[in-house]
Amino acid sequence: MKNPILSTLLVTFATVISAYGKGPVDLILVWGGGLNQPIEIANSAALNAFNPWVGQFADWKGKPFVDAPCYRRSFEVMFYMKSPGRFSAFDRGDLKMIYATRYCWSGESGYVYLPGPGEPLYGENGGTIIRGDADGKWHPATPAWDALLSSAVTMRDQEAAVDKIVISGGALKRPVEIMDSELISKFDPWTGVFVDWKVPARMGPCNWEYEVTYFKRGTGFKKESKPETPSDQPGFRLIYGLRYCMGNAGEPGYVHIAGFTDKFWEQNVHMVWDGTQAGEWHPSTLAWKEFIQREVDEQARSARVGDPK
After folding, report:
1. Strand 27-31 to strand 74-82: parallel, antiparallel, or no bridges (unpaired)?
2. Does the structure show a pLDDT above 60 at 223?
3. In this structure, what are the phi and psi dihedrals at residue 154, rounded to the nearest 5 degrees?
């Protein structure tokens, strides 16, 4: 004998799924990676052409990658839909964030990343579609997806710029602030000159440990105001941070890239995607060691001559 109440609930549930699921999304949002504000894609042609279920953004026949060539310069791309009952920290009123990816452009081709098990936003994606072995990997983007997001890449290159680097700890008596545009450009967090990326992650002998933090004026790369954090400074917002252990003698030393549970993760993940390199110590570069050592020596020299630098 059928339960009339259960039958009514099943019909109602099916109606909700039909009305709100697997149709065109209502908004695609591109943000992070240095954009001053999110880019909203709301034209009907784009929304009809791309959705999480069909996944027209990736070439699923192409070879996947653990890390794409351009992964550090990547954007967060989120799909939104009016979906009652869904909830995430990234919702925008009635529009619910139902699926999240990352996108980067190497200058020749684009790549799409899908969060894997245990990573932020994997749970939200699972409420929409799970792609099994495809999750947790980078995939070649389709030409149509590259064309749609090219404006975001262009805008990021125009807007992304750090205003201040601060070095603290180690042999320093007080933090050193660096606002020289040439030095900031050379050692920006996106190019990652502080790590020798050709060498596998590892830790070795080192001595003084420093914190190196990157700041943007005002509210960072977001125009809307948000609560300050203990790491922010008056007029500046922390956008990226790392730890550096100075190498002994001629060794360059080691850099620690923040992982999920580490200090700076919350700032780093929305600005620079460190991918599988996060949470590890990595051999640094001699250029980075010389940069840090020069600032330490300059402070010591100033102290000897009575300059309060």
Report:
1. antiparallel
2. no
3. -60, -45
191 Cα distance to chain centroid: 13
> In terms of residues, how long is the chain?
309
Query: Which of 109, 132, 110, 113 is CA-nearest to residue 121?
Result: 113
Q: Within a 13 Å sphere around the CA of 8, how many CA atoms are in the beta-carbon half?
A: 3
pLDDT at 153: 66
**Measured distance CA(124)–CA(129) in Å, rounded:** 9
Tokens representing residue 198 in the block: 């050709």
Tokens of 101: 């990816």
Do β-strands 176-178 and 138-140 pair in parallel, antiparallel, or remain unpaired?
Answer: unpaired
How does DSSP assign 114-170, residue by residue?
Answer: ---TTSTTHHHHHTT---GGGTTSEEEBPHHHHHHHHHHHHHHHHH----EEEEEET
Render pLDDT for 39-52 as a digit per residue (tens, 0 to 9): 899 989 999 999 99
Is 38's pLDDT higher than 90?
no
- Give 222-259 as a DSSP string: -SS-----TT-BTTEEEEEEEEEEEESTT--EEEEPP-
> Which pLDDT value is given to residue 159?
57
Residue 76 phi, psi (nearest 5):
-90, 130
pTM of the model: 0.74
C-alpha span between 256 and 278 (Å, rounded): 8
The secondary structure of 39-74 as a DSSP string is EEE--HHHHHH--TTTTTTB-TTSPPBSS-TTTTSE
- Structural contact between residues 111 and 104, judged by C-beta atoms closer than 8 angstroms: yes
Read off the tokens for 146. Answer: 């590259």
pLDDT digits (tens, 9 = 90+) for 157-184: 555 678 999 999 999 999 999 999 999 9
